[in-house]
């Protein structure tokens, strides 16, 4: 029997991304393996979103190579991405999830139970029939997570999913992320929040000006930053 297709390990080998004369990512090499969440941190403009788009296969590198489970074709096997401002379909909360299941190829007869399970997983069962565009910001992000989880991803990429949310909504989203990680989903998440890094991350990727400045376990990054840029970032100084 053929082994199940996997998107892990995710390997970036000397990857650069350029737009005209601007270098967005500069010769980044890293490997993402199963395990605790990986947080991509750095100042604004460091290239966090660009890195996630490369990891998803939405963008092709200008040079270097990206591979997923040893494959270099960009078609996703078991990966999903959640953007900072997800678009809600003009349907109910439940119908948004049903649409995601249909796109993932889930047979029609299985969708109702899967929708119910995903609604419960993200705490939106009571809002199943509410139009998705009438949800609050935190509720919308939880729905977006449910749609991503509908794809049964092995690798889930998140682009600052709690940006602009209040503390209660942030906590709800973080709880879903942690439960997803505990279920075996590899989370790679961009964040600018040092507290969030402490709460969620098993390891950290630190970008500055499109370059990989540091990578390693969270406790080492927090306690023993290896570069002046990381030390300044942790102090809350501006890193330009």
Assembly level: single chain
Q: Kindly report the CATH topology of the domain at 10-87 and 155-235.
A: Rossmann fold
Shape: globular
How many alpha or pi helices?
8
Strand content: 15-25%
Overview of this protein structure:
The structure is a single chain. The protein is α/β, with parallel strands linked by helices and 240 residues long. It has a domain at 10-87 and 155-235: Rossmann fold (3-Layer(aba) Sandwich). Helix content is 35%, strand content 24%. It contains eight helices and nine strands. It has helices at 48-56, 93-103, 108-121, 137-149, 167-182, 194-200, 218-223, 228-235, and strands spanning 10-19, 22-32, 38-41, 63-68, 79-82, 155-159, 186-190, 203-208, 211-217. It has a six-stranded mixed sheet, sandwiched between helices. The protein has a three-stranded antiparallel sheet with strand order 2-1-4, with helices on one face. β1 and β2 form a beta hairpin. The protein is globular. The protein starts with 9 loop residues before the first strand and ends in a 5-residue tail after the last helix.
């Amino acid at each position: 029997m053929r082994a199940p297709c996997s998107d892990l390990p995710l390997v970036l080998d000397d990857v650069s991304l350029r737009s005209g004369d601007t270098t967005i990512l500069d010769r980044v090499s890293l490997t993402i393996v199963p395990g605790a969440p990986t947080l991509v941190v750095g100042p604004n403009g460091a290239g966090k979103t660009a890195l996630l788009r490369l990891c998803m296969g939405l963008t092709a590198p200008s040079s270097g190579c990206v591979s997923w489970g040893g494959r270099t074709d960009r078609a996703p096997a078991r990966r999903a991405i959640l953007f900072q401002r997800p678009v809600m379909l003009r349907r109910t909360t439940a119908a948004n999830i049903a649409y995601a299941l249909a796109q993932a190829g889930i047979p029609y007869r299985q969708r109702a139970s899967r929708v119910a399970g995903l609604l419960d997983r993200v705490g939106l069962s009571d809002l199943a029939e509410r139009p998705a565009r009438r949800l609050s910001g935190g509720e919308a992000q939880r729905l977006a997570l449910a749609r991503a989880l509908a794809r049964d991803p092995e690798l889930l990429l998140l682009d600052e999913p709690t940006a602009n949310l209040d503390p209660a909504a942030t906590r709800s989203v973080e709880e879903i992320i942690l439960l997803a990680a505990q279920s075996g989903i590899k989370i790679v998440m961009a964040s600018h929040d040092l507290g969030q890094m402490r709460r969620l991350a098993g390891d950290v990727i630190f970008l500055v000006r499109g370059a990989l400045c540091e990578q390693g376990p969270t406790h080492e990054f927090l306690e023993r930053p290896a570069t002046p840029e990381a030390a300044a970032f942790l102090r809350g100084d501006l890193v330009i």
